[in-house]
From TrEMBL:
CDD domains: MPP_superfamily. This is Serine/threonine protein phosphatase. InterPro entries: Calcineurin-like_PHP, Metallo-depent_PP-like. GO terms for molecular function: hydrolase activity. Residues 1-216 form the Calcineurin-like phosphoesterase domain. Pfam families: Metallophos.
Amino acid sequence: MRIAIFSDIHGKILLPFKLVDLYQRETGRKIDFILQCGDIGAYPNIENLDKATIKHAQYDRDELGFHDDFTKANKEIKAFLDALNINMICVRGNHEDHDFLDSLEKENSQNSLFPIDIYNRVFVCKSGCKQTLEKENEVLNFVGIGRIGDRKGRTEKRFIQNYERKEIKKLLKTKDTFDVLITHDKDDSQSGYGMAEIREVLDNVIFHYHFYGHTGEPYKEETDFNGITQSIKIKELEFNESGILEKGCMIILTKENGELSIEIVAQKLTNKMTKFNWKSQ
């Protein structure tokens, strides 16, 4: 089983799928799923954009990619996604239409993840819930935790909500071991920011890998304070001033014969998809 992992796509919903297609063509290796670490840019209604997205969208229409390409069916996009036949599973970030996502989550109250797009290819997983991906004889167990933390008691929907904290409390009691934790935020107790709940989860539940985004830092891999989990900061899926994607924006997680390994996709490959040509690739 191979899984492509991205973070912070900010409306460029199609880009992870395009990169997966490129990877498969260049390497001959099949990708089975996509995981995405939040800031999807899921804004179906332009009227509900947050201030940051409005600012960036003035200079980059890609910020509105969910509205433009994933709320109304486009024959070319549908044909591409159908041929690729891969789903992307995300956690919420802080730059989303949370009222929209809340309504879908309530409609799918019995399920641990729910589709958010017209093609049923983009899913959001509920924070703190156990998730399973299966492909042939391999099974990947993971948990997602969305939104960002707050140390000031604020309750806006970009911050973790009390019902999600309750699910996380249930998770803390499990004796299960998981392959992966995906989050948008991180915990950095020493500097006083981030999501404290993530620290609590990593200190009480065994995960082999933790992938996150949000912080703007470069790609980084280190052993977590718990001494067990490999903590990996995924570089945001953003084009730099030269129009290329930076190192560590696309990671491949492989599970084979029960063993996990990761590959940082080389820029030699990702550089073939630039800010100027990616939609036509």
